């Protein structure tokens, strides 16, 4: 299967989230009437976000032939908690969704450390070849990262304005993850391993 262009994958990754942000900002402070029901800007943006994410996920699967467990878990939780927010017209369910996702990831990574199973490496080793010690260190750090993001999400949505939370979800969380990855560049270099190419094995 031909690998899709990088920009296509980036559009599929960021498109639904940026659409969510745009819909929220365009309707911020207003009520949106739909099907005889009035929705807040956040609930209406969630209503738009769910099918957009589902469509992007299906397209990614059709183009690449695979989905990461994180992508599947994210879609399921968005459908469940986003659907509850729309159904009950209550944005709180969608706001706690990142907390549930990050606690789930932190718990799975913590469990993999305890049981000495390299689940993270099994998912990412093709893109980031490292030795076993490197994967153990990265797994522990990522477990703490996700735990910190879960706590941060609770603090922001419970103690700050809805607009602040939308900014945090759309831009704050990705920036934190990006900075985390950049901060671990030394770890990647120190524990990287060479993967034999097809030419080397002939």
SSE layout and pairings?
Blueprint (H helix, E strand, L loop, with lengths): L5 H22 L3 E4 L2 E4 H24 L4 H20 L3 H23 L4 H6 L7 H28 L2 H22 L1 H6 L7 H4 L1
Helix pairs in contact: 1-2, 1-7, 2-3, 3-4, 4-6, 6-7
The gist of it:
The chain has 202 residues and is mainly α.
Notes on the structure:
Plays a role in cell envelope biogenesis, maintenance of cell envelope integrity and membrane homeostasis. The chain crosses the membrane at residues 7-27, 39-59, 71-88, 100-119, 140-160, 166-187. InterPro entries: YciB. Pfam families: IspA (PF04279). It comes from Paracoccus acridae. With 202 residues, the protein is mainly α. The protein folds into two domains: 1-89; 91-192. 77% of the residues lie in helices and 4% in strands. The protein has nine helices and two strands. It has helices at residues 6-27, 41-64, 69-88, 92-114, 119-124, 132-159, 162-183, 185-190, 198-201; strands spanning 31-34, 37-40. A two-stranded antiparallel ribbon has the order 1-2. A hairpin with a 2-residue loop joins β1 (31-34) and β2 (37-40). α3 (69-88) packs antiparallel against α4 (92-114) and α6 (132-159) packs antiparallel against α7. The radius of gyration is 19 Å and the shape is globular. The two termini are 23 Å apart. The model has no long low-confidence stretch (mean pLDDT 90).
């Amino acid at each position: 299967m031909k690998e899709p262009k990088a920009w296509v994958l980036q559009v599929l990754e960021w498109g639904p989230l940026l659409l969510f942000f745009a819909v929220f900002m365009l309707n911020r402070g207003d009520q949106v009437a739909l099907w005889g029901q009035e929705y807040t800007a956040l609930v209406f943006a969630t209503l738009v976000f769910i099918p957009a994410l589902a469509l992007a996920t299906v397209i990614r699967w059709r183009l690449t032939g695979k989905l990461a467990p994180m992508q599947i878990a994210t879609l399921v939780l968005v459908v469940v908690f986003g659907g509850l927010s729309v159904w009950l017209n209550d944005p709180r369910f969608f706001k706690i969704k990142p907390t549930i996702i990050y606690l789930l990831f932190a718990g799975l990574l913590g469990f993999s450390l305890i049981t000495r199973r390299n689940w993270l490496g099994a998912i990412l080793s093709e893109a980031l070849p490292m030795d076993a010690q490197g994967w153990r260190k990265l797994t522990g750090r990522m477990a703490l990262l996700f735990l910190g993001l879960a706590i941060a999400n609770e603090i922001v949505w419970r103690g700050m304005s809805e607009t602040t939370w939308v900014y945090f979800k759309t831009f704050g969380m990705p920036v934190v993850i990006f900075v985390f990855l950049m901060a671990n560049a030394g770890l990647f270099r120190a524990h990287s391993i060479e993967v034999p190419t097809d030419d080397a094995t002939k």
